[in-house]
TrEMBL record:
<protein>
    <submittedName>
        <fullName>Putative short-chain dehydrogenase</fullName>
    </submittedName>
</protein>
<dbReference type="InterPro" id="IPR036291">
    <property type="entry name" value="NAD(P)-bd_dom_sf"/>
</dbReference>
<dbReference type="Pfam" id="PF00106">
    <property type="entry name" value="adh_short"/>
</dbReference>
<dbReference type="GO" id="GO:0016491">
    <property type="term" value="F:oxidoreductase activity"/>
</dbReference>
<dbReference type="InterPro" id="IPR002347">
    <property type="entry name" value="SDR_fam"/>
</dbReference>
<keyword id="KW-0560">Oxidoreductase</keyword>
Length: 325
Protein backbone atom coordinates (compact mmCIF):
# COMPACT_ATOMS: atom_id res chain seq x y z
CA UNK A 1 0.00 0.00 0.00
CA UNK A 2 2.05 2.98 -1.22
CA UNK A 3 1.46 5.76 1.30
CA UNK A 4 1.19 8.71 -1.10
CA UNK A 5 -1.20 6.87 -3.38
CA UNK A 6 -3.36 5.83 -0.42
CA UNK A 7 -3.40 9.36 0.97
CA UNK A 8 -4.51 10.68 -2.41
CA UNK A 9 -7.28 8.11 -2.72
CA UNK A 10 -8.69 8.73 0.75
CA UNK A 11 -8.43 12.52 0.64
CA UNK A 12 -10.04 12.72 -2.79
CA UNK A 13 -12.96 10.63 -1.53
CA UNK A 14 -13.51 12.90 1.46
CA UNK A 15 -13.36 15.97 -0.78
CA UNK A 16 -15.73 14.42 -3.31
CA UNK A 17 -18.32 13.47 -0.73
CA UNK A 18 -18.26 16.90 0.86
CA UNK A 19 -18.16 19.10 -2.23
CA UNK A 20 -19.06 17.23 -5.43
CA UNK A 21 -22.53 16.26 -6.61
CA UNK A 22 -22.54 13.72 -9.41
CA UNK A 23 -24.47 14.70 -12.55
CA UNK A 24 -28.08 13.55 -12.65
CA UNK A 25 -28.37 10.81 -15.31
CA UNK A 26 -30.05 12.21 -18.39
CA UNK A 27 -29.79 12.02 -22.14
CA UNK A 28 -28.65 8.43 -22.45
CA UNK A 29 -30.66 6.53 -25.05
CA UNK A 30 -31.44 3.10 -23.62
CA UNK A 31 -34.51 2.45 -25.76
CA UNK A 32 -34.66 -1.13 -26.96
CA UNK A 33 -31.85 -2.20 -24.64
CA UNK A 34 -31.81 -5.02 -22.09
CA UNK A 35 -29.94 -4.46 -18.84
CA UNK A 36 -29.06 -6.79 -15.97
CA UNK A 37 -28.41 -5.40 -12.49
CA UNK A 38 -27.37 -7.79 -9.72
CA UNK A 39 -28.02 -6.90 -6.10
CA UNK A 40 -30.89 -4.88 -7.54
CA UNK A 41 -33.40 -4.92 -4.70
CA UNK A 42 -31.58 -2.64 -2.28
CA UNK A 43 -29.02 0.13 -1.95
CA UNK A 44 -27.04 1.21 -4.98
CA UNK A 45 -28.48 -1.57 -7.12
CA UNK A 46 -32.05 -0.45 -6.47
CA UNK A 47 -31.37 3.22 -7.20
CA UNK A 48 -29.31 2.36 -10.28
CA UNK A 49 -32.17 0.17 -11.51
CA UNK A 50 -34.64 2.99 -10.94
CA UNK A 51 -32.57 5.39 -13.05
CA UNK A 52 -32.15 2.84 -15.84
CA UNK A 53 -35.90 2.22 -16.03
CA UNK A 54 -36.54 5.96 -16.02
CA UNK A 55 -34.08 6.31 -18.92
CA UNK A 56 -36.16 3.94 -21.01
CA UNK A 57 -34.65 0.45 -20.99
CA UNK A 58 -36.84 -2.03 -22.80
CA UNK A 59 -36.10 -4.74 -20.25
CA UNK A 60 -34.49 -4.64 -16.82
CA UNK A 61 -33.49 -7.95 -15.26
CA UNK A 62 -33.18 -7.55 -11.49
CA UNK A 63 -30.84 -10.22 -10.13
CA UNK A 64 -31.63 -10.81 -6.45
CA UNK A 65 -31.07 -13.36 -3.69
CA UNK A 66 -34.62 -13.10 -2.34
CA UNK A 67 -37.46 -13.10 -4.88
CA UNK A 68 -40.01 -11.63 -2.45
CA UNK A 69 -37.75 -8.66 -1.73
CA UNK A 70 -37.05 -8.38 -5.44
CA UNK A 71 -40.76 -8.26 -6.22
CA UNK A 72 -41.25 -5.45 -3.68
CA UNK A 73 -38.34 -3.52 -5.18
CA UNK A 74 -39.83 -3.97 -8.65
CA UNK A 75 -43.13 -2.47 -7.53
CA UNK A 76 -41.28 0.40 -5.85
CA UNK A 77 -39.48 1.20 -9.11
CA UNK A 78 -42.67 0.95 -11.17
CA UNK A 79 -44.52 3.25 -8.77
CA UNK A 80 -41.82 5.91 -9.01
CA UNK A 81 -41.29 5.72 -12.78
CA UNK A 82 -44.81 4.98 -14.05
CA UNK A 83 -43.43 2.42 -16.50
CA UNK A 84 -45.12 -0.74 -17.72
CA UNK A 85 -44.78 -3.76 -15.44
CA UNK A 86 -43.51 -5.84 -18.36
CA UNK A 87 -40.28 -3.83 -18.53
CA UNK A 88 -38.93 -5.45 -15.33
CA UNK A 89 -38.27 -9.09 -14.52
CA UNK A 90 -36.93 -10.43 -11.21
CA UNK A 91 -34.57 -13.40 -11.40
CA UNK A 92 -32.84 -15.29 -8.58
CA UNK A 93 -29.06 -15.30 -8.26
CA UNK A 94 -26.84 -16.23 -5.32
CA UNK A 95 -23.40 -14.77 -5.88
CA UNK A 96 -21.84 -17.14 -3.33
CA UNK A 97 -22.79 -20.13 -5.51
CA UNK A 98 -21.03 -21.21 -8.70
CA UNK A 99 -24.12 -23.18 -9.77
CA UNK A 100 -26.48 -20.23 -9.25
CA UNK A 101 -24.29 -17.92 -11.33
CA UNK A 102 -24.15 -20.49 -14.11
CA UNK A 103 -27.93 -21.01 -14.00
CA UNK A 104 -28.51 -17.26 -14.17
CA UNK A 105 -26.16 -16.87 -17.13
CA UNK A 106 -27.76 -19.81 -18.95
CA UNK A 107 -31.16 -18.16 -18.56
CA UNK A 108 -29.77 -14.83 -19.78
CA UNK A 109 -28.46 -16.55 -22.90
CA UNK A 110 -32.11 -16.98 -23.92
CA UNK A 111 -32.81 -13.24 -23.90
CA UNK A 112 -33.42 -11.59 -27.29
CA UNK A 113 -30.48 -9.28 -26.54
CA UNK A 114 -28.23 -8.15 -23.69
CA UNK A 115 -26.63 -4.72 -23.71
CA UNK A 116 -25.54 -3.90 -20.16
CA UNK A 117 -24.47 -5.81 -17.06
CA UNK A 118 -24.18 -3.91 -13.78
CA UNK A 119 -22.51 -6.51 -11.56
CA UNK A 120 -23.40 -4.68 -8.38
CA UNK A 121 -23.92 -7.50 -5.89
CA UNK A 122 -21.14 -7.51 -3.32
CA UNK A 123 -20.15 -8.36 0.22
CA UNK A 124 -18.30 -6.56 3.01
CA UNK A 125 -17.54 -8.58 6.12
CA UNK A 126 -14.73 -9.09 8.61
CA UNK A 127 -15.90 -12.62 9.44
CA UNK A 128 -13.93 -15.43 7.83
CA UNK A 129 -15.91 -18.17 6.11
CA UNK A 130 -15.56 -20.36 3.05
CA UNK A 131 -18.12 -20.59 0.26
CA UNK A 132 -17.35 -22.84 -2.65
CA UNK A 133 -13.55 -23.07 -2.48
CA UNK A 134 -12.74 -19.49 -1.50
CA UNK A 135 -13.09 -17.09 1.38
CA UNK A 136 -16.63 -15.78 0.91
CA UNK A 137 -15.72 -12.18 0.04
CA UNK A 138 -13.45 -13.45 -2.72
CA UNK A 139 -16.12 -15.82 -4.04
CA UNK A 140 -18.77 -13.10 -4.18
CA UNK A 141 -16.80 -9.96 -5.07
CA UNK A 142 -14.19 -11.45 -7.37
CA UNK A 143 -14.51 -15.03 -8.62
CA UNK A 144 -18.24 -15.18 -9.27
CA UNK A 145 -18.39 -11.58 -10.44
CA UNK A 146 -15.81 -12.36 -13.13
CA UNK A 147 -17.44 -15.71 -13.86
CA UNK A 148 -20.76 -13.98 -14.50
CA UNK A 149 -19.08 -11.47 -16.82
CA UNK A 150 -17.34 -14.19 -18.81
CA UNK A 151 -20.50 -16.28 -19.13
CA UNK A 152 -22.51 -13.29 -20.39
CA UNK A 153 -19.91 -11.98 -22.84
CA UNK A 154 -20.91 -14.33 -25.71
CA UNK A 155 -24.51 -13.07 -25.51
CA UNK A 156 -23.32 -9.47 -25.38
CA UNK A 157 -21.07 -10.01 -28.40
CA UNK A 158 -24.00 -11.52 -30.32
CA UNK A 159 -26.23 -8.60 -29.34
CA UNK A 160 -23.64 -6.06 -30.45
CA UNK A 161 -23.37 -7.70 -33.87
CA UNK A 162 -27.14 -7.59 -34.31
CA UNK A 163 -27.90 -4.14 -32.89
CA UNK A 164 -24.66 -2.21 -33.50
CA UNK A 165 -24.82 -1.05 -29.86
CA UNK A 166 -21.66 -1.22 -27.73
CA UNK A 167 -22.28 -3.51 -24.73
CA UNK A 168 -21.15 -2.29 -21.32
CA UNK A 169 -20.11 -4.13 -18.17
CA UNK A 170 -20.04 -2.14 -14.93
CA UNK A 171 -18.46 -3.51 -11.74
CA UNK A 172 -18.65 -1.07 -8.79
CA UNK A 173 -15.39 -0.30 -7.06
CA UNK A 174 -14.18 1.70 -4.07
CA UNK A 175 -11.48 4.19 -3.17
CA UNK A 176 -10.65 1.72 -0.41
CA UNK A 177 -8.65 -0.19 -3.02
CA UNK A 178 -5.95 2.47 -2.46
CA UNK A 179 -5.57 1.07 1.07
CA UNK A 180 -5.33 -2.60 0.11
CA UNK A 181 -2.17 -4.32 1.41
CA UNK A 182 -0.27 -6.57 -0.99
CA UNK A 183 1.15 -9.10 1.47
CA UNK A 184 -1.33 -11.83 0.47
CA UNK A 185 -0.68 -11.38 -3.25
CA UNK A 186 2.53 -13.37 -3.58
CA UNK A 187 2.94 -17.00 -4.63
CA UNK A 188 -0.31 -18.98 -4.51
CA UNK A 189 -2.66 -16.03 -4.10
CA UNK A 190 -5.89 -17.95 -3.55
CA UNK A 191 -4.24 -20.23 -0.98
CA UNK A 192 -3.12 -17.14 0.92
CA UNK A 193 -6.57 -15.56 0.76
CA UNK A 194 -8.28 -18.76 1.83
CA UNK A 195 -6.13 -19.47 4.88
CA UNK A 196 -8.01 -18.81 8.15
CA UNK A 197 -4.67 -18.47 9.93
CA UNK A 198 -3.30 -15.64 7.81
CA UNK A 199 -6.36 -14.00 6.22
CA UNK A 200 -6.43 -10.25 6.82
CA UNK A 201 -10.19 -9.80 7.00
CA UNK A 202 -10.01 -6.16 8.06
CA UNK A 203 -8.51 -5.42 4.64
CA UNK A 204 -10.40 -8.04 2.67
CA UNK A 205 -13.03 -5.75 1.09
CA UNK A 206 -10.44 -3.18 -0.10
CA UNK A 207 -8.32 -6.03 -1.43
CA UNK A 208 -11.27 -7.51 -3.32
CA UNK A 209 -11.74 -4.18 -5.08
CA UNK A 210 -8.06 -4.01 -6.00
CA UNK A 211 -8.34 -7.51 -7.46
CA UNK A 212 -11.32 -6.38 -9.55
CA UNK A 213 -9.22 -3.60 -11.06
CA UNK A 214 -6.48 -6.09 -11.89
CA UNK A 215 -9.03 -8.43 -13.46
CA UNK A 216 -10.86 -5.91 -15.62
CA UNK A 217 -7.59 -4.44 -16.91
CA UNK A 218 -6.52 -7.90 -18.03
CA UNK A 219 -9.94 -8.75 -19.43
CA UNK A 220 -10.17 -5.42 -21.26
CA UNK A 221 -6.90 -6.22 -23.04
CA UNK A 222 -8.48 -9.41 -24.39
CA UNK A 223 -11.92 -8.21 -25.57
CA UNK A 224 -12.61 -5.13 -27.65
CA UNK A 225 -16.32 -5.42 -28.44
CA UNK A 226 -17.48 -4.17 -25.02
CA UNK A 227 -16.70 -1.36 -22.60
CA UNK A 228 -15.80 -2.75 -19.17
CA UNK A 229 -15.40 -0.20 -16.40
CA UNK A 230 -15.26 -0.11 -12.61
CA UNK A 231 -16.75 3.09 -11.14
CA UNK A 232 -16.36 4.23 -7.55
CA UNK A 233 -19.71 5.45 -6.17
CA UNK A 234 -17.82 6.52 -3.04
CA UNK A 235 -18.96 5.92 0.52
CA UNK A 236 -22.75 5.78 0.51
CA UNK A 237 -25.61 4.99 2.86
CA UNK A 238 -26.13 1.75 1.00
CA UNK A 239 -26.39 -0.90 3.70
CA UNK A 240 -23.19 -2.60 2.54
CA UNK A 241 -21.58 -2.22 5.96
CA UNK A 242 -24.36 -4.26 7.54
CA UNK A 243 -27.23 -3.67 9.92
CA UNK A 244 -25.11 -2.97 13.00
CA UNK A 245 -22.03 -0.94 12.04
CA UNK A 246 -19.71 0.34 14.74
CA UNK A 247 -19.84 3.84 16.21
CA UNK A 248 -17.00 5.10 14.02
CA UNK A 249 -18.69 3.87 10.86
CA UNK A 250 -22.00 5.41 11.91
CA UNK A 251 -20.32 8.76 12.56
CA UNK A 252 -18.38 8.64 9.29
CA UNK A 253 -21.59 7.77 7.45
CA UNK A 254 -23.53 10.60 9.06
CA UNK A 255 -20.89 13.21 8.24
CA UNK A 256 -19.52 12.08 4.88
CA UNK A 257 -21.67 9.46 3.20
CA UNK A 258 -23.43 10.22 -0.04
CA UNK A 259 -27.05 9.26 -0.42
CA UNK A 260 -27.58 5.95 -2.16
CA UNK A 261 -29.25 7.73 -5.06
CA UNK A 262 -26.26 10.06 -5.47
CA UNK A 263 -23.83 7.15 -5.47
CA UNK A 264 -25.93 5.22 -7.96
CA UNK A 265 -25.36 7.96 -10.51
CA UNK A 266 -21.77 6.72 -10.81
CA UNK A 267 -23.01 3.27 -11.81
CA UNK A 268 -25.47 4.70 -14.33
CA UNK A 269 -22.67 6.81 -15.80
CA UNK A 270 -20.65 3.63 -16.22
CA UNK A 271 -23.61 1.99 -17.94
CA UNK A 272 -23.91 4.91 -20.36
CA UNK A 273 -20.18 5.24 -21.05
CA UNK A 274 -18.39 4.34 -24.25
CA UNK A 275 -15.02 2.99 -25.31
CA UNK A 276 -13.18 5.70 -23.40
CA UNK A 277 -14.11 3.85 -20.20
CA UNK A 278 -12.85 0.43 -21.31
CA UNK A 279 -10.66 -1.11 -18.62
CA UNK A 280 -10.82 2.05 -16.53
CA UNK A 281 -11.39 2.96 -12.89
CA UNK A 282 -13.85 5.87 -12.65
CA UNK A 283 -14.42 8.43 -9.91
CA UNK A 284 -16.95 11.28 -9.98
CA UNK A 285 -17.99 10.14 -13.46
CA UNK A 286 -14.47 10.59 -14.86
CA UNK A 287 -11.58 8.26 -15.58
CA UNK A 288 -9.13 8.34 -12.68
CA UNK A 289 -5.73 6.76 -12.19
CA UNK A 290 -6.08 3.90 -9.70
CA UNK A 291 -3.69 3.06 -6.88
CA UNK A 292 0.00 2.88 -7.69
CA UNK A 293 -0.36 -0.76 -6.62
CA UNK A 294 -1.97 -1.09 -10.05
CA UNK A 295 0.15 1.24 -12.14
CA UNK A 296 3.70 0.53 -10.94
CA UNK A 297 5.93 -2.36 -12.01
CA UNK A 298 5.13 -4.46 -8.95
CA UNK A 299 1.43 -3.96 -9.54
CA UNK A 300 1.76 -5.03 -13.16
CA UNK A 301 3.52 -8.22 -12.07
CA UNK A 302 0.89 -9.02 -9.45
CA UNK A 303 -1.91 -8.22 -11.89
CA UNK A 304 -0.68 -10.76 -14.42
CA UNK A 305 0.01 -13.43 -11.80
CA UNK A 306 -3.39 -12.96 -10.20
CA UNK A 307 -5.27 -13.06 -13.48
CA UNK A 308 -3.46 -16.20 -14.56
CA UNK A 309 -4.46 -17.88 -11.29
CA UNK A 310 -8.01 -16.56 -11.56
CA UNK A 311 -8.38 -17.92 -15.09
CA UNK A 312 -7.07 -21.29 -13.93
CA UNK A 313 -9.75 -21.34 -11.22
CA UNK A 314 -12.51 -20.21 -13.59
CA UNK A 315 -11.54 -22.87 -16.11
CA UNK A 316 -11.93 -25.49 -13.39
CA UNK A 317 -15.41 -24.19 -12.62
CA UNK A 318 -16.51 -23.91 -16.27
CA UNK A 319 -14.08 -25.64 -18.64
CA UNK A 320 -13.49 -23.58 -21.78
CA UNK A 321 -15.02 -20.40 -20.38
CA UNK A 322 -12.20 -18.17 -21.65
CA UNK A 323 -12.29 -19.61 -25.16
CA UNK A 324 -15.93 -18.55 -25.55
CA UNK A 325 -15.35 -14.84 -25.10
Amino acid sequence: MPILSAAHGVSSTIFSNLFIDLPYPAGGDLSGQTVIVTGANTGLGLECSRHLVRLGVQKLIMGVRNLDKGAKAKQDILASTQKEESCIEVWPIEMASYASVQDFAARAAGLPRLDVLVANAGLMTTDFSIYEDNETTITVNVVNTLLLCLLLLPKMRQSAAQSNVLPRIVIPNSALHYLAPLKELEGDIFANLNSPKTADMASRYPLSKLLIIYAIRELASRVDYVAINTPNPSFCKSGLVGEDPGFGTKLFEKVLARSTEMGSRALVHGALSGKESHGQYLTNCHVQIPSSSVTNAKGARIQKAFFDQLVEKLERIVPGVMSRI
